[in-house]
Amino acid sequence: MAVIPIIFARLALLCVLLNGLSALAQTTPVQVRPGVQSIDLTTDGLVLEDPDGNLSLDEVRSTAVGSRFKRASFTPGFTPSAFWFRFTLRNEGATPDIWWLDSGDRFMQEVDLFWPDASGAYQRQSASSTRPFSERPLPTSKFVFPISLEPGKAVEIYLRARPMGFMPVAFYPSLWKPEAHKEAANRVRLQ
Length: 191
Description:
Layout: H1 3-24, E1 30-32, E2 38-40, E3 46-50, H2 57-61, H3 63-66, E4 82-91, E5 97-102, E6 110-116, E7 122-127, E8 144-149, E9 154-162, E10 174-176, H4 178-190
Parallel strand pairs: 1-4
Antiparallel strand pairs: 2-10, 3-4, 4-9, 5-8, 5-10, 6-7, 6-9
């Protein structure tokens, strides 16, 4: 009979270790190198489900809530939950660099991007399928946000998404140099 508590204790320890490994997996930042035109981020981020959609940036950055980020699908499907996506990026260049973060989506009810500026203060940009096109951060068919990455720093950026009731959550995030994004969008239009 003493074997059962030992098995449960080992399972609990294994769960703790796996949670720790999930958090460690994010410590390696995505290397943003000069000369690179685009970076697929779909395998480089962590996901946090926010069932009530009430979490703030400060809460998701806290240890208590932030430790619940995990590797998961960026396409959880039909759900009323909000989702937070966390990416760690490092500009390997010698100067600040402008990039466009493409969410890969154009139908979300709410999409917010949070990234730290040169002083480390988090800035926010918002987009929505319920607001006029003219209010988007960039005039693109998908929700795309401009960000500046300081040289030699690893920063965490957060993308928050909440769907409309009848649309599935399906994000395919990528990072683009502005001109490369414009060229890719033009190619799609011409097809």
